[in-house]
Write a structure and sequence with these properties.
By secondary structure, the protein is mostly beta strands. It is built from 2 helices and 41 strands. It has a 41-stranded antiparallel β-sheet that branches. It is rod-shaped.
């Protein structure tokens, strides 16, 4: 039914309001109820095709879909199931989603709408822009081939082409995808974005840039924008200071980090590596933690130092007017192994700035055949990779000779220097005391020297004592073998810890071959 307003002999030139229910051909075949209205309606010919020309506040209502199409002007072709709309074109669905463009061609039979010349699709969460959108009205799905951009809060997503799915509130971006927000710039070739959950699922090789470094993955992952939570498989985090890889990486708010499975952390400057099964980093505390049979390795003088513990804690230390330092704390059941140096303790600290390893809580060190104990023991790796060993307070050094006798040295503290991995010189300072067993040509016991002085200087060659200088002049006694008593053969504080002496095999137990290869 069409209602027109007429004057005496001709149609009024004033705007006419009309309403038509189209239930016959061509819309009857679609079983869709469609109504339309406009300020003006008149017959016209466009490209030699008869049509109805609608102008002014044009509106089509598609009742089956709960959709309304509005425009400044439209053509409804008489012999084709097609509508062309121009000027401020807008489609609003029953959920409130809006698609706008300057131009629309709508195929009623195929339920396909082609939006051109700058398209925007808006929902409660954000707006999608593209030059051209081919849209299936029934499925609420469309494809864009001339570039697309989604803007949501502080996030912008772009790509060369992709798919828009209004039904599932999802946009698939393909080819040169870039996501930018306040924390990250993400590059990949395929990404699915869910506008309701505000989650981006990226696939394939992905590179993510943030203020402190770069994240990469060959397998993709997802980014939950409300929580600023980023998670991906086979990930690598590279910063100026470290490289972190794991089977699974999760980053929260661009700062806090969790890693699981085959974790590897490499300190770039000092080439120290930690492997384990789990790791986490809390930015506010500037603290990282590695667990799951962790192992630290560092190459010194072409030899690998292995350090094991139950847990490693990595701390960032800021000192005024000095470069920042990292400390790696090894907690509980600490074991150290290097070809010429081994040790155990219940705690250790590696300082990247000073390049030192401190052993504490009942530390024990073995250098060649020497067992060394003290309240605090630490190694300093100096320029040129020269290594020095320091023992503070209650030094006690023991070596077992070929006949099972224990040569002993004790004092307040000690400094030892190394050459090619073996001790070259030792200085024992304060209340020095030694027991040394003299053997004959046939390894028979001749006797024992007991010496006391304030300062001892010992020179070694091939792990054997070749010279000992005592300062000032020592006091001492020689006990012939036949007069030696058991009580005289051990200094106060003597304990032999041979059963705790670590080997490379028990240092590397419970560590996978792959992790050992990567750490070395």
């Amino acid at each position: 039914m069409v209602v027109f307003g007429w004057n005496d002999k001709k149609m009024s030139k004033k705007p006419i309001y009309f309403l038509v229910y189209l239930l016959a051909w061509p819309f009857a075949a679609l079983a869709d109820a469609v109504t339309y209205r406009a300020d003006r309606l008149e017959g016209a010919m466009v490209n030699n095709k008869p049509c109805k020309q609608l102008e002014g506040n044009v509106a089509f209502t598609f009742h089956a879909h709960g959709m309304v199409l509005t425009a400044d002007k439209a053509y409804k072709y008489d012999d084709e199931e097609r509508i062309e709309a121009q000027g401020n074109v807008k489609i609003v669905d029953k959920e409130g989603s809006v698609i706008k463009s300057p131009l629309l061609i709508y195929d009623l039979a195929q339920k396909q709408a082609i939006f051109e010349n700058g398209v925007s699709c808006s929902s409660k969460k954000g707006t999608f822009h593209t030059a051209k959108l081919i849209y299936d009205v029934a499925k609420k799905q469309g494809q864009f081939l001339q570039g697309g951009k989604l803007v949501e809060h502080q996030m912008v997503l772009t790509s060369k082409r992709g798919l828009y799915d209004g039904a599932s509130h999802e946009v698939t971006f393909l080819d040169q995808v870039v996501l930018v927000d306040s924390n990250y710039t993400l590059h990949c070739d395929q990404l699915e974005y869910h506008t309701e959950s505000e989650t981006a699922y990226f696939q394939g090789a992905t590179k993510i840039i943030h203020q402190d470094g770069v994240l990469t993955t060959p397998k993709g992952g997802h980014y939950l924008l409300p929580k600023k939570q980023l998670a991906f498989d086979q990930g690598t985090l590279t910063t100026q200071d470290i490289i972190l890889t794991a089977d699974r990486l999760t980053i929260l708010d661009g700062q806090d980090c969790a890693a699981t499975g085959h974790v590897l952390l490499r300190a770039q400057k000092h080439d120290a590596v930690i492997v384990g099964e789990k790791a986490r980093y809390v930015a506010k505390e500037k603290k990282g933690e590695i667990t799951g049979h962790p192992l630290l390795t560092k190459v010194v003088n072409d030899q690998i130092i292995y350090l094991r513990a139950d847990t490693f804690i990595v701390l960032e230390k800021t000192i005024p007017d000095q470069p920042p330092e990292q400390e790696i704390h090894a907690l509980h059941h600490v074991r150290l192994y290097q070809e010429e140096l081994q040790g155990v303790a219940d705690g250790a600290v590696y300082n990247s700035g000073k390049n030192t390893i401190h052993l504490h809580n009942k530390p024990i060190i073995w250098c060649s055949s020497y067992q060394i104990t003290g309240e605090e023991v630490y190694l300093a790796i100096e320029e040129g990779e020269e290594v020095k060993l320091f023992v503070d307070k209650n030094l006690f050094m023991v070596s077992e000779d070929s006949m099972g006798h224990y040569n002993q040295v004790k004092g307040h503290k000690m400094v030892a220097s190394f050459k090619e991995g073996a001790i070259e010189k030792m200085s024992i300072i304060g209340n020095s005391e030694s027991l040394y067993f003299a053997l004959g040509d046939k390894n028979e016991l001749i006797g024992m020297n007991h010496i006391k002085c304030d300062h001892m200087e010992m020179t070694m060659s091939a792990n054997t004592l070749v010279q000992m200088i005592c300062k000032p002049k020592p006091s001492g006694l020689f006990y012939p073998a036949e007069k030696l008593e058991d009580t005289q053969m051990k200094l106060d504080g003597f304990v032999w810890h041979g059963e705790k002496w670590p080997t490379k095999e028990n240092i590397l137990e419970e560590v996978s071959k792959e992790a050992i290869t990567k750490s070395g």
